[in-house]
Amino acid sequence: MTGVLRRPATHPAPAVGTDAEVTIWEVGPRDGLQNEAGVIPTATKVEFVQRLVAAGLPIVEATSFVHPKWVPQLADAADLLTALAADDALGETARDLPVLVPNERGLDRAIELGCRHVAIFASATETFARRNLNRSFEDQFAMFAPTVTRAREAGMRVRGYLSMCFGDPWEGEVPLRQVVESGVRLLELGCDQLSLGDTIGVGTPGHVRALLAAYADAGVGTDQLALHFHDTYGQALTNTYAALEAGARTFDASAGGLGGCPYAESATGNLATEDLVWMLEGLGVRTGVDLDALITTSAWMAGELGRPSASRVVRARG
Ligand code: HMG
Ligand code: MG
């Protein structure tokens, strides 16, 4: 397309600085594809992961070892990881692609395949714990405790996701204290990082600042946190910037803005990775991501899924 800039002009922001070391945690193959109505061939998923890694994304979350009846879209998790492990270009690093595990059964499946990086996923609210995990709020911690302990004993890295941090479609507003207490419990179980999820995309920048400040008051700094914004209300990028200014450096994003949660109806796609990279490049912050390769990958995936990409950058670049 003519008349379109291939890169933003660089204008650093003093509150961020060009030396900020930002990590993009790509969730497209997991959060993105768990929500697709149609069946996506495993070979397409393999190529998606391969292309994202080749585009320079440092962390690519590959899939979930959840109950296949709960999320049939990711029922091919074992086949996917086996194919990725056989890829010479990925080699040993295939074992470092994070995978979701809700419980010990999921962990066993991940261990069998040699995974070295897992993520558990909790809810800050009672209703979503029941809907997403078939557990009460309290019981979810009992499910995670042995899962995290065993994963750590096996030498794995363990991320803890916390959903509904900015609002819940059934319970409405979620008190900051409830979100902080739930997250601290995940860290105390042994998670090395906590990803705060705006599962239904309702948060706004002041809310982000307030939540990060509440975590800081509880002794949890931004170095232990990641932000996971869905873009339902168009706030994901501005929320990311607010978190960046407040010192956060790890951001979850999904190539092409794919995503959603099958058990939270009002959830739409995640912050699009291309839109995040565009902003960071404009700020002069290095990401290591090849934006052109990423855009080409998302345009290809949109073709595979048969609908236009949700990413504004992908659409602008045609
Ligand atoms: P359950 O039905 O209560 O399971 O589901 P159970 O513990 O009673 O076990 C029943 C049977 O399932 C047993 O088999 C287990 O072995 C089997 P049986 O003895 O009857 O033959 N089973 C499994 N099989 C394969 N893999 C497993 C597994 N676990 C049990 N891991 C469960 C409980 C947690 C498993 C279920 O609720 C589940 O799979 N939930 C996952 C839902 C999900 O994946 N949601 C999307 C991800 S979360 C998200 O997207 C949010 C996030 O992006 C952040 C944000 O946006 O906020 C992370
Ligand atoms: Mg999500």
Topology:
Layout: E1 23-26, H1 28-32, H2 42-54, E2 59-60, E3 63-64, H3 77-85, E4 99-100, H4 104-112, E5 117-123, H5 126-133, H6 137-153, E6 157-163, H7 176-189, E7 193-198, H8 205-217, E8 225-229, H9 236-245, E9 250-253, H10 273-282, H11 291-305, H12 312-316
Parallel strand pairs: 1-2, 1-9, 3-4, 4-5, 5-6, 6-7, 7-8, 8-9
The chain binds 3-hydroxy-3-methylglutaryl-coenzyme A and magnesium ion.
3-hydroxy-3-methylglutaryl-coenzyme A is lined by residues 31, 34, 64-67, 70-71, 102-103, 105-106, 109, 121, 132-134, 161, 163, 197, 199, 228, 230, 261, 263.
Write up this protein.
- It holds the Pfam family HMGL-like.
- Its EC number is 4.1.3.4.
- By secondary structure, the protein is of the alpha/beta class.
- It is 40% helix and 12% strand.
- It has helices at 28-32, 42-54, 77-85, 104-112, 126-133, 137-153, 176-189, 205-217, 236-245, 273-282, 291-305, 312-316; strands spanning 23-26, 59-60, 63-64, 99-100, 117-123, 157-163, 193-198, 225-229, 250-253.
- The protein has a 9-stranded parallel beta sheet.
- The model has no long low-confidence stretch (mean pLDDT 96).
- Bound molecules: 3-hydroxy-3-methylglutaryl-coenzyme A (HMG) and magnesium ion.
- The site of magnesium ion has 7 residues, from loops.
- CATH superfamily heading of the domain at 36-45 and 57-246 and 259-268: Aldolase class I
Order of strands across the main sheet: 2-1-9-8-7-6-5-4-3
Please count the beta strands (DSSP E, at least 2 residues each). Answer: 9
The level 1 CATH classification of the domain at 36-45 and 57-246 and 259-268 is Alpha Beta
Structural class given helices, strands, pairing? alpha/beta
Helicity range: 40-55%
The CATH topology assignment of the domain at 36-45 and 57-246 and 259-268 is TIM Barrel
Radius of gyration, in angstroms, nearest whole number: 18 Å
Number of helices: 12
- The assembly state of the depicted protein chains is single chain
